[in-house]
Amino acid sequence: MATKLAYRGSEPTKFKKTKIKKDDEVLVIAGKEKGKKGKVLAIDKRKDRVYIEGVNKRRRYVRPTQENPQGGAIEIEFPIHLSNVMFSDPKADNKAKPKKKIKAVRLGFLKKDGKTLRITRPEGKEV
To answer: Tell me, what is one Gene Ontology molecular-function annotation carried by this entry (predicted)?
Structure first.
């Protein structure tokens, strides 16, 4: 008997290490929300998704409850893929593409005294 094959990407990636953390300022670099900035509200590591404040908002209709007796439409943030965001640093210069005014930088890791630090690349400044 043949087993059902999982489609590519359906397997959850457990405990994947991400460079973006909660409460970081990020810039959306791809998709319909490209160019928007916001603060990271939550990260879903299993699906490689990130929730950003004020980005990818959609309208949802809710039933009346005790907390919300009127019910009706509410606007909530939906997740976007982790690869579509970049760490935003207003003090950083974009040396890779100086003509573009993108104030976003790549992040890397550095081991120092047994601790792992997040640094900007290629400058090497600590975040």
So the answer is: structural constituent of ribosome
